[in-house]
Amino acid sequence: AAAWRVVCDHLLSQKRFDEAVAAARKAEVISKALGDTPGAVQALQLMTSVYCEKEDHASAVKASWEQRAAYQEAGYVDEEASTLLGIADFLSSSKGPREAMKPALDSQALFRQLGDKEGEAGALVTIANLQLGLQSPTDALKSTKEAELLSRSAGDAIGQASALQTAANVYMVQNRSSEAARVAAEAREILHKAGERRCEAAAWQILCQVHLNVCTRASDSGRSADPRAAREALRASEAS
Predict the structure, then answer these.
(1) Which residues of 96-128 are buried (b: 16+ CB within 10 A; e: fewer)?
(2) pTM of this prediction?
(3) In this predicted model, what pLDDT tens digit does every residue of 149-168 receive, in sequence order?
């Protein structure tokens, strides 16, 4: 099985897509026969990569669902939940938020069943982004708040900041600029206190973008931009 996975990688590098899929499928069949669920899923992940490279999104989605089925059959609930979240992300980009919502909700339910607060919070952030894409900002904000509470109780600074940054996006959609700036700044402060310097640098960039959006919206509406927003945008840009 390992040898066929290597062959698949080689064929993929040469863009021999159909042969690569066939090699991945052979690796999967052998792994299944041996009762090697991780090996079978690894082969299916390779197959998904081949289909993505080939831009055959329907087949990529099908292979992703096969990964979920393999984990489900073997009783690997944690891996099944993570796979469902990956499927949701893939469907969101390829088919849109409506198609992605069910696997995201199923992922959240499995993480909750496991008592995995960090996993459930991550699923809720994905759900919030999907709700925002479906023009349901009130629901999205509710999901971000739940994700933030879960991350905080789990001591997960990165997850907490991610929830707050998603909330900032929701507030901007709702034209609630001051709230957006507040939660974006809170996210940056949480990462700073946790010593997550790389994530903090990205948080400064998000905070800069929030303040720039405030200035842009003021300009577009014919109003003078708040000088404080301009100063904060400059400060955040320099800090990042």
Answers:
(1) ebebbbebbbbbbebbbeeebbbbbbbbbbbbb
(2) 0.84
(3) 999 999 999 999 999 999 99
